[in-house]
Each structure stands twice: as C-alpha cells, then as structure tokens.
Amino acid sequence: MTVTAQDPAVRSYLKTLHTLLEGAPDQELVVDGVRQHIIDALGPEASDPARVRDVLHELGDPAAIAADARTSTNPIQLPFLQRRSGAILTVLLLTVGAFIVPVAGWIVGLGLLWFSTGWTLVDKLTATLAPIVLTVLSLGLAYLFTPFPAHLGLLGGFALGSIGAAVFLLARFREGGRAHVA
C-alpha cells in the first residue's frame, strides 16, 4: 500500500473522482493517472499533511478533471467498431455494399456487425435474418403470382430487409459497446 493511499484526503479525492467518472470508458485510466501524479508530486513529503493539501489544491476540483476527461475527443479512445462511425460503415455495407459489391459487401458488413460490441445478440440475429427472411417471402410471393418476376422478388425482398435492418441497427447501436440488455 502506498503512502498516499493511506492519506484520508487523497483517498477521498480519488474516490470522488472515480464516482464522477462512473460509466466513462477511460475511468480507471484517469484515476490511475491522477493517483500517479499525486505520488510523483508528493515525493518524499508524502506524510506531510500540508504538502498533501497543497498538491490536491494544485490539482483542482475533481469535478473539473472528470468533466475534462469526459469531453476528451481522443479518437483512439474507442475501437472503430465501438464508435458511431463504425456502426455507420457496418450499416452501409449491409445495405448499399450488398448491391455495389454483390454478396461480398453484405458478407463484410455481417462480419463487422458480429465483431462489434455495440449491439446485443438479438440485434445481430435480427439484422442478419431480416433480409434473408424477406427475400424468401418475396420469392414465395413471386411463385404464387406468376406474372410477378422472380428476380424482382429477390431484389425487393433483400432490399426491404436490408433497409429495415439498417434502421433497426442504427436505432439500437450503443457507442462504446455498452449495448442494452435485450
């Protein structure tokens, strides 16, 4: 146990900071960084209450540190598939990509969907199966109503399923991978 961890003022400061950062993706990183800064700043004077008070005063209000940490726009903070831009690329590949690069675009989109942590298992299954189910239903209708061309049923069903899945996925995406429970 470090000397600073024993000091009640430091413990209180770090606990407050930890609480204010609740839910932030880099909560532990920020708290550990502040803890290390305190240790470095105190140096051999770690047991001097006046020095501890001065170091904490120099750091400032924990709420200000938490606010700065929450508004940090570090692009490396979240992996690509856990950010809104990753979700948009996934949805574009599942819809437009399926028609621009037939089959391959959709398969790559499915890969991104299943590797992302921004959606629940139910969301992923729904988005995967919707185009397939609507395509099969459209083909069934095409065979029931013979004047209806089968290729239109194939494309129409897949397009409707893909667009529906895209809207569904964008509505259900949770940035940072904290997907809600289905």
Automatic annotation (TrEMBL):
The lineage of its organism: Bacteria, Bacillati, Actinomycetota, Actinomycetes, Micrococcales. It comes from the Bacteria. Keywords: Membrane, Transmembrane, Transmembrane helix. The chain crosses the membrane at residues 87-115, 127-146, 152-171. This is DUF1700 domain-containing protein.
